[in-house]
Structures are given as structure tokens and as C-alpha cells.
Amino acid sequence: MKIAVGLSGGVDSSVAALILKNQGHDVIALFMQNWHDTTGTLYGDCPWKDDRAIAEMVARKLDIPFHFVDLSSEYSKRVVDYMFSEYQKGRTPNPDVLCNREIKFEVFLKSALDLGAEYVATGHYCRKETIKNSDGSETYRLLAGKDPNKDQSYFLCQLTQKQLSKALFPIGDLLKPQVREMASIAELPSADKKDSQGICFVGKVDLPVFLQQKLHTKSGDVIEVFPSFFDQKEQSNYNFSGYENIDDEFLKSASQPVIYTKESGKRIGEHQGAHFYTIGQRKGLNIGGHKDPLFIISTDVNENLIFVGEGQNHKGLFRKALFIDSDEIHWVRPDLKMVTGEVREYLLRIRYRQPLQRAKLFMKSEGLYVVFNEPQRGITPGQFAAWYENDELIGSGVIMS
Q1: For residue 8, which of 189, 207, 142 has the smallest C-alpha distance?
Q2: What is the pTM of this model?
């Protein structure tokens, strides 16, 4: 079987290629360049040149053909432009999820198929299983990786059945130490390479500097919201005690974030643009005089205001529910799609590496309401919520509110 491995220069994709080569497959290495600009990168240089050099050395070590493809134009249009657009609206996108859906398993996949490959393999820590249906068709299950500390299924939460049909995840059953050990025994050049960090294919960035390529600075007020603000409110988000009396009114109320104004607190400083900040952010405010750190609890890009609260347990950081518009719901398992009026219980996460949380999903004509058993910290519009049945990822959607 001819398989193209997305060889990134990291240890995970290197070992994926090693495993497939040892299994006797016809393996080719395909390295993609997705970014050129160094604006905002913390090291003043994009890492792709070093990554390509290591990837080529790994390919030579494994004696497999090495191919290079420049996807920077598509990456800019499908991922980076989307990032700028979302931040401008005051939402916080997840470029890694978009990169997998739009680049790795779309444009990159097409490049691999054009080279004659039957499948594309990556170094993701997740697994795929195939269900044989009675009519002869196949359904693909996306499962969490065996390593609980490295499971990356969340980043693949927007993949389709068609994309999964061509995907392979050779290291999904391994733990990270095992991957390192295999790379070391095989003397792969990437064996000791540190895991990449930051934005997919861009690297670690100073986000405000990066965003200033297209988004302008604009001075605005930082408003501190004190605990007494919540003592005066009768918010269903904070008084929720069970699922017994959930109706449409509760769902709509609980899934809406608290609306703050200048009168909600006290002005304590100035920022350079509300669109540069995100809910739950701690760093970058540079405001002192507090015992505990300040966290952003809300942003208002229309009024250019940032609202903050002192301490990581500030009430403004927690909510019980969220909403996903009907157009933003994606089913990895379309055969398990919910219908209007249906209620199910799933395990959810709203960010990578967050422990799975129990919640009930309520499907309505306008979209999906998610009500958690416990209040969730930092529910952020623009991020993805992903729901699981045990270790299988069933579906996902962009958080609207």
C-alpha cells in the first residue's frame, strides 16, 4: 500500500513513517510549507527551514522518497485570514483545528493523492476504527489516543467521514515515551527534537504583534468587575442546581454570557485594542496593585472595552451553558446526528487537554444548547466544543455564545 506521511521534522511523524516502513508499506515523505512571514514570531524566524532539514534527514535515514509542497497560499486564505476575521469580531479561533480540516486533510491530502498515495498518515495521537455496515459501506470512528497526556483527537474534531477514510494514525496506540524510545533505537535525527509550540506552522508568536499585521491598535478602558456585581444579579448561570426544570427560556438565558458595561465596575487601566485579548487571558495586561492575578472575563470590541476580574475563581470566568448555531454543528459520525427536540448526555471538552466534562445536549431548530453538570471556566466564542461517547469523538461545533 502506498502511503504518504506528513513528515514535519518532529519525532511523532518520524516514528509514524518508521512504523509504516517496518510494516512493509510503500512510504513516501511529504513535507509541507505553510508559512513564510516572520512578523510577530518570537524567534524572528519561521521554524520551517530547520524542520525541513530534519525531515529530509529522517527520509534519508528511512530510505524513503522526500517530496516538498508549498501550501502557504491556501494556508493564508483558509486559516490565517480566518484568524484575523475572528479576532476582529472579538472571537477566539482555534487555528490548529482549522489547519487539520482545511490543510492537512484537504489540500495536503489532494497533493498526496496526486503523487499516487492511497492514504495519508500523520503523527497525531489518536486512533481510527472502521465499522462494516450491513450494506457493505464503512463508517469510520475517531478515537482518543492511548496516551491520555497527548491525546490529540480534539484537533481533528472537524474531520469528515471522507477525510477519515484516507487517514492513518500509526502512533495512536503508543505512549509518548515509547515513541521517543523507538526514534532513539532507530537513530532518527528527530529523536530528541522538542515538540513544536504555538500556532500551527507559524510557531510561537507575540499574538498582538502578529495580529497587528491587519488589525490596528486602539486605546480603550480596562474595567475591573468586583464580586459584588454578581451578588446583585439573579443569573441562571449561577443558580442552576439540576436538569429537572430546563425549558427553552432557561437554555437561552443560561447560554448567554453576562453583558457588562462601563458601569459594571471601575476603570483601572488602558489597553491597545479589545480584539487582541481573549476570555481567560491573564498575561499582557500589565496592571499591578492586586493581591491575585487579573483575568479577562469579557471583551467588547464594539465599545473597545476589556472587563477583568481578580483571581482564577472569579465568578465572571464561569458559566453553565453554551450555544452552537445550527450552521456550525459538525458530526464526525453523521449516522449519530441528533434531531430537533432530542436530548443526549455526552462528555465534552471546550479546549485541548481539558479533562472531559459531563453535559447534556439539547437540539433545537436554531442550534445546539450544551448544559454542563458543573460550571465551566473560560467558555470562549470562536473556540470548538467537542463531544465524546467514551473515547470516541462524535461531533463538534464552534461556540457562538
Answers
A1: 189
A2: 0.91
